Predict the structure.
Amino acid sequence: MNILVTGGAGFIGSHLSKRLLSEGHTIVVVDNMNEYYDPDLKRARLAEFEDTITFYKEDIADSEAMKGIFEKHSFDAICHLAAQAGVRYSLSHPLVYGHSNYMGTLTLLEAARHHKVKNFIFASSSSVYGETGRVPFVEDDPCDKPVSIYAASKRAGELLCSSYSELFGIDITALRFFTVYGPWGRPDMAPIIFTEKMMKGEAIELFNGGDMRRDFTYIDDISEGFVLALEKNKNGFTI
């Protein structure tokens, strides 16, 4: 397949791109290389496979830029991972989440609609479950009480996907990731932060008095889930 991977210089996007390339797919990567964390890390990830892809440094919310890319390429599928990450960061920079996570997703869905791309995989988040009142979460929980702006932006993206699937017949799957870890991981996440603190002999900051548990998912399992969704995504809108 000819596949568009948005956010392909990111942690998950770069691993997914390498996995798809290894299976013989043609990959186009779009990433704006923003400075939420060091862009040098993103460039280093890209360096591992940039000679085998077509890369565009563009903002997914830029409708004219996306129009140009979709006119140059005929995509069989879209793997949409580009997003502004970070729960705490969303408290101080809420407009970034509206721009990237909402408008960016809307822009891509419009491009998919007009260019007849029928296979669309959306990288959502377990954060959308919010205050469900039960743990573990279940896929059909209502998800109507997100507790962060980041979570609300991801839930809004899911709702857009549902609407576009219903209105325009696009097969869309939303994958709700639980915290992902592995090689080339994001430096703002606990595994990297804790490791750096330990190597420097510094104290690790604990929240909630240390009374906290967290599920993590290894990056290769996330990539596998994406590949399976691409292969079986023929059922309208699916969580």
Remarks:
- The chain has a mean pLDDT of 93.
- The chain has eight helices and nine strands.
- Residues 94-114 form the longest helix (21 residues).
